[in-house]
Design goal:
About 25% of the residues lie in helices and about 25% in strands. With about 300 residues, it is an alpha+beta fold. The protein has two domains: about 90 residues, Phosphorylase Kinase, domain 1 (2-Layer Sandwich), CATH 3.30.200.20; about 150 residues, ATP-grasp fold, B domain (D-amino Acid Aminotransferase, Chain A, domain 1). The strands form four sheets. Strands 8, 9, 12, 13, 14, 15 and 16 form a seven-stranded antiparallel sheet that branches. A hairpin with a 3-residue loop joins strand 1 and strand 2. Helix 1 runs parallel beside helix 6 and helix 3 crosses helix 4. The longest helix is centred in the middle third of the chain and has 23 residues. It is globular and about 65 Å long.
Length: about 300
């Protein structure tokens, strides 16, 4: 597991460390009799690490891993009639209880599946350039925070570590994974965002956009990784929504805003690593993640 503050990866008895991303650590179970690694299961551990602008930041956000894991589990239940998911069990080693799940090992799609219900962020930058987002033509006159007439599928590449994802057209997605899976990925991504907003809007939250991960099992798509969390989605307070400028948020947009503010003294185009997050930013980010979890699920964290 990672230590509570999201630093280095340490061994877990009965598991082999496979991979660490910016936020997650992945392990494979070892058969206690043969000593061989199971090829069909993985232990997915959410650390407290936080990333922005393709950098892992320091320090970590306390309890973030547990919030993301528990919120994803809650959403998997809300989406169960739309799409199967990769969860096998929440019975995991004690040292990662609450922030880890045992999952099916899947062949992952080589596409970042993104859907947008509102225009902001990278989608807004694309739109301002030529009126399109990932090849989708949008109406004229939209501004930062505008609600789109219908949610749109705006996929991107999965860039190698250290590089930026690039927008993909739907034709490029078809070329990468075939027409049948492309159509399924598009329809499911949009349906997940629509269902998410249907539920979240009753709880005072707008989900501006989201990124979902799919794997392939027996020829069909399975929802994997996390879903509709503050790390993979933009959450806005519905009562403060006002197009024309950046919106207040419950997600790591708060961290991005601090990093790009004069207070941080950091230039995101410099290629240099971002500065250490101040204690106040860490505390407020934790509070935003917990508030999003509690508002959506109705549970106390």
């Amino acid at each position: 597991m990672s230590d509570p503050h999201g630093a280095g990866v340490v061994p877990i008895a009965g598991y082999e460390h496979v991979y660490s991303g910016k936020v997650r650590d992945v392990y494979a179970p070892i058969d206690p009799v043969t000593g061989e690694v199971h090829g069909d299961r993985l232990l997915l551990v959410a650390s407290d690490r936080i990333s922005a602008f393709d950098f892992a930041l320091s320090p970590a956000i306390p309890d973030k891993g547990a919030v993301l894991t528990q919120l994803s589990l809650w959403w998997f239940e809300q989406l169960a009639d739309l799409v199967p998911n990769h969860i096998v069990s929440t019975d995991v080693p004690d040292e990662v209880t609450g922030r880890a799940v045992l999952v099916r090992r899947l062949e992952m799609l080589p596409v970042e599946c993104v859907a947008r219900a509102y225009l902001t962020g990278g989608g807004l930058r694309e739109y301002r350039a030529d009126g399109h987002v990932s090849g989708v033509r949008l109406p004229e006159g939209l501004t930062d925070g505008s609600r789109l007439p219908v949610p749109v599928f705006t996929p991107s590449t999965k860039a190698p570590k250290g590089e930026h994802d690039q927008p993909m057209s739907y034709a490029q997605v078809e070329s990468a994974i075939g027409p049948r899976l492309a159509e399924r990925a598009r329809d499911l991504t949009v349906a997940i965002l629509a269902r998410g907003n249907e539920i979240a809007s009753e709880r005072g939250i707008l989900i501006a956009d989201t990124k979902v991960e799919f794997g392939v099992d027996e020829g069909d798509l399975v929802l994997a990784d996390e879903v509709l969390t503050p790390d993979s989605s933009r959450f806005w307070p519905a009562d403060q929504w006002e197009p024309g400028h950046p919106q207040p948020s419950f997600d790591k947009e708060f961290v991005r805003e601090w990093l790009t503010s004069p207070a941080s003294g950091w230039d995101k185009d410099s290629g240099e690593a971002p500065p250490t997050l101040p204690e106040e930013v860490v505390e407020r980010t934790r509070a935003k993640y917990v508030e999003a979890y509690e508002r959506l699920t109705g549970r106390t964290f």
